[in-house]
């Protein structure tokens, strides 16, 4: 980059930051976020990306949440009654009606070709960079050396919110918090928007959604069996009265020689017993209980091509699908959206 281009760029970044701060001073968070996002698409600035993570969180507390849905859960018609197992659609049929029909009648729905090859490559690189820069931080690198790929998110303490404490454990399970990666989160939110996911979720939840810092992850599942989680329903620890949907997207082919997801292919309407003999945690589910809950629809190991997605919610019973002898790591992103009108604050909101 030439000296003049450098000067022009840093002036443009300062201008965008000044405008955003002025808007935030007037509590106009959505406009500040829009301006910074637009500017950053060509400026790729660490300072903008870090500010965006914080503004997306703070903006939740200035957002007046209203839902267009009087009750929850909805009871959509079963459009997939004639399909065995988990229903599958292609990206061209990705609508809130189809997704709700799959999730509320069958527990989940697979969407093939959710992301383009270019989006997959951008997100896979984001996962790799985030892990690598977190490693540098662990080895003692300063934040200025790990930004914009790894800058631990530290939310302003507020009543009902919770400091993040599980980074070490998450990392052992192959997950990085997307909010710890200002550039990774920027790329993720753009991909979610460009693929039509944010619009679909807005219609599905009946309001502009918020992601969760604690549940939105950039994942690298290692080929050597290492999952420390086991069978679980996220509803066992997310709390009652929530409205949520998770979009999990494979960034590499998986399910044969790389870890994938194992899933009970049916809609469960209750939280099954947790912490029974053989379960790894008090919130996870033993093999025996999972098989019991599955009944005549036994768990399946899912196979995905890169860019395929599966969508489910807090009632779904699943685990990382891994076996001894797998030869490849698997990359994925996991985006948990919640309805702001009944948001569990300890999950730490990020407006999208
Ligand atoms: O990616 C994985 O292996 C696990 C993901 C998961 O448990 C989830 O999306 O809730």
Automatic annotation (TrEMBL):
Q: Name one GO molecular function term.
A: oxidoreductase activity
Which SUPFAM superfamilies does the entry mention? Clavaminate synthase-like
Q: Name one Pfam family in it.
A: PhyH
- Write down the Gene3D superfamilies for this protein, in alphabetical order: q2cbj1_9rhob like domain
Its protein name is Unannotated protein
Q: What is the lineage of its organism?
A: unclassified sequences, metagenomes, ecological metagenomes
